[in-house]
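Handout, tutorial session.
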Amino acid sequence: MNGSTIHRLLGAVTLVFALSTASAQFRAPLPPGPDALMSALTTEVMATLREDRAAGRKTDLAQLVEARIVPVFDFQRMTSLALARNWRLASPEQQSVLAAQFQLLLVRTYSLVLLEFRDQAIDYKPLRAAPGESEVTVRSTMRRSGVEPLTIDYEMADGPAGWKVFDVKVAGVSLVLAYRDSFAHEVRTGGIDGLIKALEDRNRQNVSATSDAAKLAPVLMIYGASAAKP
């Protein structure tokens, strides 16, 4: 699999991340198991998007994603994994800013991707985990017309706040690791503050791009694909 194909797949995972969150209209209690949780949230948010389209309503994507993205995804852990040993170079204040900017980057990207893939079917496989395991892999596939299914694996951990996603693998490629090289490059060239600025710049670009449908494709690219290489 070449680099451009991997990055396109990683761009597509933003949909799956978003589909793994519940919409603001979700009212039923969430299932306790991680696989049941992901399946239920995916079903609900897809139904919301389709119902809005059928009724001629414009979906509030920001509300749809923000409603559940924070409680379902562990952005602090995701950011620390993406930075690897560089995470220890950041002060607590810098770590907080990095996690917030990383979250903002993903959430805004999800909002753009949601509608594009709302008609895709996602199948969840039976969970392979021993009773009491605190970290599991929830496996699923996205069925796409005319092409082979796309595999999406969610790495999830159980904690005081319940099950949370700390990484996603698309076609075997880790979202967190896809960011690691570009994050390391920014730290080498500009330190932690340089990485923070790069993320802030990317988020400002995403804000301006949301009003221009023609800019959708580049916005979908993962940060690591568009950042300068060492």
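The second record follows below. Compare its token runs with those of the first.
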Amino acid sequence: MILIQDPKNAPTGPKVIAVGSFDGVHRGHQALLARARRHAQEAGLPLLVYTFDPPTKALTKGVPILSTLSEKARLLEVAGADVVLAVPFDEAFARRTKEAFLEELRELEPRLLVVGEDFRFGRGRSGGLEDLARVAPVVAVPLVCHQGAPVKSTRIRDALLVGDVELARALLGRPYAVEGVVVRGEGLGRQLGFPTANLALPAMKALPQGVFAVEVEHKGRLHPGVAHAGPRPTLKDVRPRLEVHLFEGEGELYGETLQVRFLKRLRAPRRFPDLAALKAQIARDVEAARAFFSQQGA
């Protein structure tokens, strides 16, 4: 797969183009991409995915993102993209007219455009499906629903906000994950008897708050564990943190990249009167996480 950020670097020739923010590449996006992939294969054409970095609402509304560009690119490749065009989305781009966007699409030589049925574009969201049809034939893919409501990135962010990682998993089609590099912390977890790996968080990345049973991928292997995500009220630390205790020791992890997959929320964040009370609760959290994995047969 090719990842580019300038439309001028796109391969020449006809192609099928799927357009959207694709934040999180959730089940709705996956349905759209499967449809686009099928059309591309039937026509013997490459599939180009036109997306935005960051996602449009991250700039226009300041919402956190579900996937970094590298995460999104990997997910889009799995979904069958031959080329990912991740156009930098800034204030200048947001002010572009719909005609400017349409002209850029024309220059990409689409044989077919595939979008969601609610896709809008251009300044003030003035462009719609009828405008896209002036460039190439359009396939508008219906929204995917779960429990009677559409699967959308906003719904996943709302679920994460209250720690409902199980709903987020149902909407994504996989566990919600955060990837980061292990950095040095204060060593408090080790002092309390539960050493943790502290991850540097990607900018703007959505982070559920609470204590969770997690699985952690490191160098292609999965490890069960328990994670604390969000501020640390007992220590009066309001900065968002992600600290992971692995049940199986992995040795020195500083500088290593871990992917933390959130499986089940064990409890909400709490403030404890002292470190002894915190240590006792961490022990209960570890046992709760172990019980969860035991029930799952892991």
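Points raised in discussion: The chain is about 30% helix and 30% strand.
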